[in-house]
Structure formats: C-alpha cells, structure tokens
Fold D-isomer specific 2-hydroxyacid dehydrogenase.
Amino acid sequence: MRLHELPDPQRFLRDHGGEVTVAVASARFGVGNALMDALPGLGAIVHFGVGHETTDVVRARARGIDVSNTPDVLTDCVADLAVGALIDVMRRMSAADRYVRAGGWSTAPFPLAARVSGKRVGVLGLGRIGRAVARRLEGFGVEVAYCSRLPVPGVPYRRLPTALALAEACDALVVTVAGGAGTEGLVSAAVLDALGPEGHLVNVARGSVVDEPALVAAVEEGRIAGAALDVFADEPNVPRALLDSDRVVLLPHIASATRETREAMADLVLRNVERFMTEGVLLTPVPGPTH
Ligand SMILES: O=C(O)C(=O)CO
C-alpha cells in the first residue's frame, strides 16, 4: 500500500495505522515523527537508499523499531558519478558541450580548463562511498587526503583534522559525508574560501552539508572556480544563480540512478522486508544506536 497515493492518507492512518508493522521509505522522505507516532504497531522502517537522516533513528530504536538502509549496492555508481562530476567541472565538459551546441566553436576556441591528473583532492567523509571515490582517483595519480570524525585504518591517505584544513590542502573537495544535523553546513563560507578561486567542489552527499547561500555567493563572486552538485538544500529547487552559472555542473540527484543499482536497491529493500516479516530482524540494519 502506498500511503502518498491514497486520497486521504490521514484517514487511512486513523483507521489502519495500528496494523502497519513495516514502513518502506525513500531516503528523501524517511519516516517523520508524526508518521511514526501514527503507526503504533510499527516494528521496522526500511529505507530505499543509503541515507537515513530523514528518520530519527534514535527515536525509532527507543520505541523498539529497527531501521535499515541499502548500503554497498549503490557505492560504485555513486563513486563513478562523483569522479565523473569532478572531471566534468574541472575540464568544463558540460560547459564545452553547451559551447559547441551554441555555435561558439566556429567563432573562438573554448577557454582552457583545469587539469585533473596529479591534483590534490580532499574527500570529506571517508565511508564506503568516500573510499570508493578515493580508490578511483588513485588511477588518475591524484593525491588523496580526507577528513572524517575518526581515522580510517588501513588507508594510504593523509587525514586532516577539519574540513577547513582539508580544503586548504586540496585543489578540489568531494563531499561524501552522511547528511543530518551532525554535518549541516560543514562546507561553510570559510571552507569555500579555503578551497579558493582555483578550487572545485563536488557534492554527492546531501545539500544540507554545504551552506548553499555561501556557495552561491562564492560562485557568483568567483571565490571558487566551480562546483558539481548532485544534491541541493531544497530539491528539486536549484538557486537561480547556480542555474545561470556556466561554472557549475547541475545534476538532479542521480548518483545511484542506474538501472542496475536501482534494481539492486529495490531487491535489498524487499529482502529486508521479507527477513523482518519471517524472522523479526533486518538484513542491513543501520549501524549504531546514535549513528
Ligand atoms: O541512497 C541515498 O541516500 C541517495 O541519495 C541515493 O542517491
């Protein structure tokens, strides 16, 4: 049953909320507190997607509700897209495509772009996706550094203590950290200024991680060279100044959106539901009580 497609979802919740034992939610909407409260018999929340910041997991667990997401199956596609977006914004591929289509090539050569190979790239949040991005970048002879709450054992990359220090040490920053209150505004005006007028930003995490008004100002004022964004503060709304900028690559939150990966995510959702319905446990519960 799809709650959002019902003519009167509130009425359904009043009449049948107590019968629902499993809720499946997208990472975008999650299960908010009001919905959680309307489902007194809920035992599991199964997210389609790796992000789960839209559900209060601590609150759910306190009520005995277990929560799962779809890790691993989307890592490669998100990392592929992050690296593609980095190359796009640094080499200005989308802008060059627009240039050719608009007939610019017959009037003047396209302006020179920034080299990718051999540059210093900072990965903000070295989880599964961050590590997959870093591994790919090694193939470009990129010097990778990272910033994460705790040191990540067994990786050959330099760890910087803060996002600011990482931005100061790098030519480009790729944001792969989890969303939610703990990372809100982590890429601040100061971080963008540390990245500098030659620096590029890629965000495949959550719009909330970047101070979007500060990013808009930095792009407009040329305080950073460019940005490639798959996520925004208020999707699907993209600030006008970004739409108007040729220095920005804009993507409609498609990092995991391949047929193969979306099928694998859907399959994992169904396997979580099945496991919960048959054995009362989830297959891929989200880690830690306070994650
Ligand atoms: O899995 C997620 O959290 C996503 O944002 C999918 O792209």
Residues 13 and 35 are 8 Å apart (CA to CA). The pocket of 3-hydroxypyruvic acid is lined by residues 27, 49-51, 74, 255-256 (CB under 6 Å). The longest strand covers residues 22-26. The chain has a mean pLDDT of 97.
